[in-house]
Write a structure and sequence with these properties.
Structural class: alpha/beta
Number of helices: 13
Shape: elongated
Distance between the termini: 55 Å
Strand content: 15-25%
Order of helices and strands: EHEEHEHEHEEEEEHEHEHHEHEHHHHEE
Number of strands: 16
Radius of gyration: 27 Å
Helix content: 25-40%
Length: 403
């Protein structure tokens, strides 16, 4: 597609936020501005509930792909701007129709006169523009019920805007508008999808990954880094906390009640994640848990494991089937990476018969007897390694002294 000089952006759901609307729109605009930083010639013009991008020669196709990764943007359209003159609007409409890859056989015009000082009503504009297109396009017919192309003409004080296409955006809430949470990122299919859905609701994420090196390989860690990078396409740069979990896992595995190993291990992970959340001012924990999927995701297990922390635990996938989760994973391009056959710590020391109905009282009693556990949880937090992934791809690894 060529000849596109301007894009119209729409913010939809944000307009329901009353006095906070400007705050939400500014967050979306900030995200868009950051996303489109590689295209410095673009000029932004903000209007009520929308924004116009003047491309000034920047490639439309590339910019459109970037816009599809921005939360809070409901849709956008390549538009042609015309002065507030009937003949100019007609000619812009004809140019827009001729720009389409395939000449349509049927069409209709949907005009909207937001500027009431313009001398023609919306209905009159439908006829005046439609008649002009019919006169100059051989074989074209009007179909007001199922047209191949619907040509929109919006007349506003700043000019008339003509367009034929509306490309859906991601919708949702702008980045960070609903606070920050820690995503427990395992490297499997589910947790990246949960993270993406959480970001779609306006959560700023930091990811937490538990590794059991040398039982798990560096390739497994790289897999998680790659998944974080894919999420960062949508959320900007993301901090990834790599937690050494080997010592805790080995000690827990020495306990004689093997059927509770998964429960104890998950509670330890939650405890560490909460400590990291408090350190980094995060107000919740996001997991990829789906009800009934594995032993640690039965209702009883979710209750016992979730009682370990006081922060709210958000489970975006809780009622989804695996096929639904995979469909989203494919859409956001994490699936192929998630299924790479590298082991993770959750696959180590798995008991033959893990408990699906753990008892909270018994579990807490066992933990009180593990006198070494509190110190080892703190030590794991201290030894956590933090990377920043995405953004300007200035990935760097640094040890953070948390206490």
């Amino acid at each position: 597609m060529s000849g596109i000089g301007m894009i119209l952006l729409r913010f939809g759901e944000l307009t329901l936020k009353g006095k906070n609307r400007n705050v939400f729109e500014n967050r979306v605009m900030s995200h868009i501005s950051e996303t489109l930083a590689p295209y410095p010639r673009i000029k932004f013009t903000k209007a009520f509930g929308r924004c116009y991008l003047e491309l000034n020669g920047e490639p439309y196709e590339d910019v459109a792909e970037k816009l599809k990764t921005v939360f809070g943007l409901v849709s956008f359209s390549p538009v042609r701007k015309a002065p507030l003159d009937l003949q100019a609007i007609r000619e812009a409409a004809l140019s827009e129709m001729r720009r389409l890859p395939q000449p349509p056989r049927t069409f209709k015009v949907s005009a909207r006169r937001a500027d009431k000082t313009f001398p023609y009503s919306s209905m009159e504009l439908n006829h005046l523009i439609g008649g002009y297109l019919l006169k100059h396009t051989p074989g074209l017919k009007v179909d007001v019920h199922q047209p191949e192309v619907e040509l929109h003409a919006e007349v506003r004080q700043e000019g008339a805007f003509v367009y034929c296409e509306t490309i859906p955006g991601l919708g949702g809430y702008p980045r960070g508008s609903n606070g920050k949470a820690m995503l427990m990122l395992s490297g499997g299919i589910d947790s990246p999808v949960a993270g993406w859905l959480a970001m779609r609701k306006g959560l700023l994420l930091e990811a937490v990954h538990f590794h059991s090196f040398p039982y798990t390989s560096e390739r497994a860690q790289q897999k998680v880094i790659d998944l974080t990078r894919k999420l960062a396409i949508y959320g900007g740069s993301i901090k990834l906390h790599m937690v050494p979990f080997t010592d805790i896992q080995v000690k827990l595995n020495e306990h004689k009640m093997k059927h509770l190993l998964i429960t104890l291990m998950r509670r330890a992970m939650f405890a560490i994640t909460e400590k990291l959340a408090l350190k980094h001012d995060a107000g919740g924990i996001v997991t990829g848990e789906s009800l009934g999927q594995v032993a640690s995701q039965t209702l009883a297990s979710l209750h016992v494991i979730g009682r370990e922390v006081r922060l709210p635990v958000l489970r975006p996938l809780i009622a989804m089937d695996k096929s639904e989760i995979i469909k989203i994973a494919e859409k956001i391009d994490t699936y192929a990476t998630s299924i790479l056959p590298y082991e993770d710590c959750c696959t180590l020391f798995v008991p033959k018969s893990p408990s699906t109905k753990p008892n909270l009282r018994i579990t807490e009693t066992i933990e009180r007897r593990l006198l070494w556990l509190p110190d080892m949880l703190n030590l794991a937090v201290e030894r956590t390694e933090t990377l920043t992934i995405g953004g300007n791809e200035t990935d760097f690894r640094k040890n953070e002294q948390l206490f």
